[in-house]
Amino acid sequence: MARLADYFVLVAFGPHPRGSGEGQGQILQRFPEKDWEDNPFPQGIELFCQPSGWQLCPERNPPTFFVAVLTDINSERHYCACLTFWEPAEPTQEAVCSEDAAGREEEADEGGSGRLSPGTSGPPGQLFAPKTLVLVSRLDHVEVFRNSLGLIYTIHVEGLNVGLETVVGNLLTCIIPLAGGSQRTISLGAGDRQVIQTPLTDSLPISRCSVALLFRQLGITNVLSLFCAALTEHKVLFLSRSYQRLSDACRGLLALLFPLRYSFTYVPILPAQLLEVLSTPTPFIIGVNAAFQAETQELLDVIVADLDGGTVTVPECVHVPPLPEPLQSQTHSVLSMVLDPELELADLAFPPPTTSSSSLKMQDKELRAVFLRLFAQLLQGYRWCLHMVRIHPEPVIRFHKAAFLGQRGLVEDDFLMKVLEGMAFAGFVSERGVPYRPTDLFDELVAHEVARMRADESHPQRVLRHVKELAEQLYKNENPYPAVAMHKVQRPGEASHLRRAPRPFPRLDEGMVQWIVDQATAKMQGAPPAVKAERRTTVPSGPPMTAILERSSGLHGNSARRLEVVRNCISYVFEGKMLEAKKLLPAVLRALKGRAARRCLAQELHLHVQQNRAVLDHQQFDFVVRMMNCCLQDCTSLDEHGIAAALLPLVTAFCRKLSPGVTQFAYSCVQEHVVWSTPQFWEAMFYGDVQTHIRALYLEPAEDRDPSQGWEEPAEEERSALDVASEQRRLWPMLSREKQQELVQKEESTVFSQAIHYANRMSYLLLPLDSSKSRLLRERAGLGDLESASNSLVTSSMAGSVAESYDTESGFEDAETCDVAGAVVRFINRFVDKVCTESGVTSDHLKGLHVMVPDIVQMHIETLEAVHRESKRLPPIQKPKLLRPHLLPGEECVLDGLRVYLLPDGREEGSGGSGGGPAVLPAEGAVFLTTYRVIFTGMPTDPLVGEQVVVRSFPVAALTKEKRISVLTPVDQIPQDGLHLRSCTFQLLKMAFDEEVGSEKAELFRKQLHKLRYPLDIRSTFAFTLGSGHTPGRPPRATKDKGPSLRTLSRNLVKNAKKTMGRQHVTRKKYNPPSYEHRGQPPEDQEDEISVSEELEPGTLTPTSALKPSDRMTMSSLVERACCRDYQRLGLGTLSSSLSRAKSEPFRISPVNRMYAICRSYPGLLIVPQSVQDNALQRVSRCYRQNRFPVVCWRSGRSKAVLLRSGGLHGKGVVGLFKAQNAPSPGQSQTDSSSLEQEKYLQAVVSSMPRYADTSGRNTLSGFSSVHMGGHGKWGSVRASGRSGGLGGDVGSRLAGRDMLGPPQANGAPPDPGFLRPQRAALYIIGDKAQLKGMRPDPLQQWELVSIEVFEARQVKTSFKKLLKACVPGCQAFESGPTSFLRSLEDSEWLTQIHKLLHVSVLVVELLDSGSSVLVSLEDGWDITTQVVSLVQLLSDPFYRTLEGFRLLVEKEWLSFGHRFSHRGAHTLAGQSSGFTPVFLQFLDCVYQVHLQFPMEFEFSPFYLKFLGYHHVSRRFRTFLLDSDYERIEQGLLYEEKGERKGPQACRSVWEYVDRLSKRTPVFYNYMYAPEDTEVLRPYSNVSNLKVWDFYTEETLAQGPPYDWELAQVSPEPPEEERPDGGAPQSRRRVVWPCYDSRPRAQPDAISRLLEELQRLETELGRPPERWKDHWDRVKAAQRLEGRPDGRGTPSSLLVSSVPHHRRSLGVYLQEGPVGSTLSLSLDSDQSSGSTTSGSRQAARRSTSTLYSQFQTAESENRSYEGTLYKKGAFMKPWKARWFVLDKTKHQLRYYDHRMDTECKGVIDLAEVEAVVSGTPTMGAPKTVDEKAFFDVKTTRRVYNFCAQDVPSAQQWVDQIQSCLSDA
């Protein structure tokens, strides 16, 4: 029973103490005046009466009513019902607000005229003051309060004849029951009657209509997000103009949270004076009047719900986690069914007659029922995770949060995680965890209705029915007596507030009220307490929990087969079948990724533990520890799935004897896991164990079970700890005092003993075996950086945050300085403190424990020292011997093998991923560092592929990224330091160092690697050191006579260049060469007679007068360079010994740069227009970046158009060029003159073009008709800037990659060459868009500017990095499969760049082909310019598509014209910061794309491109070192190769190596080479036509990259005697697998195979083997003669089309016929043999028919007789079955390996046969054959022994041969 009202208070308006315009509340009277003992008077009521502040009003407002809620210090809520009415203000009050009054007079006047009667309004300017009646109660009966206060007000206003004192006295003494569904009628003594109903159960909240109203105001989604926000402890603020609405909304939200109680700040109505409360850091639910909305704007972390506007605003910085799916969507749909039942019927054709919707009160209960169901689903099975820590004297209960999350499958769920960590849930556990208490609706629901709820999920109507049933119960709880008598309470009359009140509210007589209260109190004391006994029962636990959503565990769905493997492996281990166990181990380790397999492992291991101890031998111990480590590696720090908990008893059970008295337990080997250092894990484990023991205390001995098996599912009949506790709580009051004491003591000592046990356990798992290794402990405790310590151990961010929070207070932070023991003691003490205080251990015991812990730890350390000492003496596990890699001649080992594991790196093939196949990785072996490469050699750890050898290597120079990582070793699952090395040859070494490799060795490896990768000087690279390794017996200077001249030459060049460079501005600082002056030789005469400044006539340059001897040497050397040979081939000018030039030639070779004085990055000889003098070139060069002025590099043989290249224009050079000339300045500056020179120079270039005529040439491309453009639509609208209109404009934007207008050609094919008409500019200048800005076109329209947007070198670099990551990911992708690869490939934009290059190149080819010349002038002229220029030449000139031509192209355009190989490849320490930019590789990729589309146009194979791609970064050869010819001369590299070599020497040039290799093997040759002599290639360039170059994706783990041919040919198998023990291969099988073996090596193509066979046969016959090329050429020649007996037409076997674009898809297939095999070549072409023109062209050309038609054997038709015969080989050779063919036409007996074989293995010429006689069986002949089936054929050379399958066929063969002989 409780008082209905505690206090009645009268509060009135009073002046503000500081005299401001606002007033303040004053308590006039309060009853009773003394505080109740059990309930003191709440402070601050006057603030809450007028939450918006106390103010006077100009008119009388109607009375208002609302209920505010105050919370006291004990979290008790006080409901303050406030009824406010207005009375005329007293003069003192008015004085306070006199300033307000003046402003409001008029309003009052106007308002007065509209009143009901003039008499009611007060005098003009009258103000009204508020007065409030307040009722304070701890009960929430809003309606009763409203009626009671209304009654008091009515008595006052209406002047009823009732004493107010009596009414107030009765109100304060009214006593009503709290709960239990009773009904009570009360009267306050004014002729009134009210009926109070109490709810059935006190625990269910009373909501009336508040929930329904809340949903009406805000809507489903908003209420759901508020619900989640309140549960996850966010701040929620309600805004409304109505105070009552604010109270209702807050009450509704609280009702939804049931069964959780909100325990933070709860203020439904917050007074304006307290608004600063909103910036409190703690969560809250607060309501504020909407008038103060502006004040709430700057709150950044508050969720604001505007009830009047129906919005909920969640700030950006606040994340409210939603309900876990599928609960979120299910709840949403059920709520919409309740709120809007019409929705389901809205679409029906015949809607049923409208059903009446529920009343608001009923709807309110239905909505609450939905949330009640939601909680039942969320918390289903929560009682199974309660730990009963103590039963007596009071229950102590803990909740095992991790187990709950794990079993519900919601480990990742943010929402539930936050709810379980929140205060509300902690209160829920302590309140509802109690096993013996009254139960309510929620307990029933969660225990008995879960199955029903699961079954109903998919049936909305059944869900709705359940909701309605629950709603009925909730409604009944609030309204137990529906047919209730009506209230009878007097109300004031209509508009009574406007009538002039007879008098102000009177002052009540305190004495009289007090007397009534005292009397009632005296009466109450006499009466017996009417306490209704609570019905307490055992709370049902409900069914065990299930996961919210059955999720399959992905790849590791643990099938029974996997569990079987785990069980078998364990039984093999314990039966001692170690070899069997070893084979299964990799499969087990893979299976242990799945949860079921981990549980299965723990169960199986439990079976092998007897009496808490299992002694194993060393091998068994290793296996068990390995599997345990694997299990624990995926445990998060909370161990949600109980794996660590299940293994904890086992790690202290399994042990091995190291020596007498010294035993090592498994725990010393499984400490490296984050879970052991998480306090939450230990607490949960401790409480679980305590529960088991406490339960055992009270169970009869018969029922007691082995507590170690407690983690199995409890049997049905077994009583849970909660049941036992419930029983004990029921009996507790009946026990005697002594018995009670005894039980309490027993429980306390149980907890105490467990605490000691756990102190031991924790010291076992926290103290490392070697206590000096504090590192392990610190990292494990989450104190080192968590990622490096265990990147695979921490799977969720939660583990990280737990570790962080623990970090700050763990006491390990000073583990560096303190000893490990101290750190562990502190950790254990902290744990002991927490659990013991929570479990009620006495303080004496606790002190005892604190004394004990250091002793326990110290004792354990001593034990460990012995174990550590002994374990060191164990014989090391036999590790496989290290396989030594094969090295190149001259390659030396820098660091010998460090034992490592090579780990899978995200490429699936190697690790047997989704594609299946052998798991070649991870492999165990060693990493070697040599002067040239980083090499890993080893064997797979998977014993099933154990006999293969794994080699992965890359050149040190190719290293692009090196990173330290921490990884788990694949076998033992122990975290180890590792290295992640990525190379630009698309190799990746992800290695974990073996534990025997110390950190010092690993660091040394890194330092040496860095030193080799970035040498200080280029001379320290492998290419230099290789040649100079002086072999004994060879003098250091092999070419002594040649030395001085080279040295002099180099020095002279450098000197002269320096002198000349001094006369101009040097733009590049990087080229300061090392001084060669101080070499001890007299300096030469420094005059340079062809100095740039002198104006010499061309004719005066005669060798005798002008050139010094050293210069002549330079000239002769320069003439032999590649560019010069090429210029002469192209007819671009010759350079005879006299340097005289034919004046008729348009271009000449100028030696102006022979001293590298004008431009250091250009070659010594350049092609310039005949008309330009050398001295002018110096001035022209100043306009261009890096002085790279335009020079000719190629001329078309057909159209005579030339291709020029240069650097981009300097900013200042642009001024004079193509711009309107400004008024000349007094002294013309150098800039202007050089710009004029530049213009003259371009004019000279244009004039040198033979087909350029003054008249017609003016009509540029822009004159081209738009109709024609529209028709072709190929050069889409093109121009980014520059000239407008017409086709000329088009060229530019087509280059700029704009979208095309008009219909684009299918496949992005290039345009027909035919449509370019002669109206065109003579010269197109292709430049950067930025650089050509603001230019004016040439006034005479001889040249045209085409501005394009190109990518820069840094974009190439970025793109390449992404490409590397896509092709060699480095770690497992989140989503495996081709899509993720393609997505990352697209992100890299590499193919887009290739597309742009091809696109631009094809356009330049078009222009050149149509007779216009092109100047490519992009960036500095050495990156993209080089790419474009080289591609254009390759596409236009078939010569460059031969091996020799391609070499020439690379030497000319890339090496001589100064592509910065060293800078782009970051070859030295200086270039380290710039990083690797693969410009040349990109060019090779473009060539590969063209090669793919035109496979018959290239003499070289795709392997040649890969070879160059690999070696341009490998630094094995000197070819691709340094940045220009100038630097190569400076280093003495350029001319040394010409000197005759003494003795064999390592190749220094890549070309020389290619030549040598080509003599031995056709690996660089393309057998499909059959060029069209005049063909200009126009490849498709769309991204869809491009393929990813297999150089990026393929790898050969059998022998490492195949580009060092000497190494690739050596078989990588180690000799038998070196095989590791136990791994000796029984078989010689080979794995042919995409990532393992080179498929071309394992299955060579037909022609390579034939050539190999020829070589083998020649060796067999003892003939010196011929070169493969000779064989090949002979076959081609024979095929040509055979195919064309009359010398015209095409061979019928070849279908060669004249349409160039159809030749791209050449397909070759072998067609098997009944006789032999014919080879057909199919081409996608309509013409069978080409047109007559192409036919005649082919007849005249020797190369068309060079396809392998030697297979088109003429013999195939002449098979007179054929069949199988056994033939005896030559001397000492066995008998073999062969397929013999008797050919009467050719008079031959040929034999083949088998019937389908097309390759004849041998021929017996019948002209040489002397006789055919019967033979006799010799040794090794077929056993089953009759003797008469043998016959011999005698020839002049030897006797052949044959044997047929039977006698008749033998006879037939003899007859056939005889008849053939007789025919002859």
Structural features, described:
- Helix content is 38%, strand content 14%.
- The chain is built from 59 helices and 44 strands.
- It has a 7-stranded antiparallel beta sheet with strand order 25-24-23-22-28-27-26. Strands 41-40-39-38-44-43-42 form a 7-stranded antiparallel beta sheet, covered by helices on one side.
- The longest helix has 31 residues, at 843-873.
- It is elongated, with a radius of gyration of 49 Å.
- It starts with a strand and ends with a helix.
- About 19% of the residues have low confidence.
Please tag this protein with its features:
1864 residues; alpha+beta; seven-stranded antiparallel sheet
> pLDDT below 50 for ≥5 consecutive residues: which ranges?
96-121, 550-557, 702-717, 774-817, 1029-1049, 1057-1110, 1137-1141, 1212-1231, 1253-1290, 1292-1307, 1309-1318, 1537-1544, ...
User: Number of helical segments?
Assistant: 59
Mean pLDDT: 77
Main sheet characteristics = 7 strands, antiparallel
Secondary structure tally: strands: 44
Question: Which percent bin holds the helix content?
Answer: 25-40%
Strand order of the largest sheet: 25-24-23-22-28-27-26
- Overall 3D shape: elongated
Oligomer: single chain
Structural class: alpha+beta
Straight-line N-to-C gap: 136 Å
Radius of gyration: 49 Å
Strand content: 5-15%
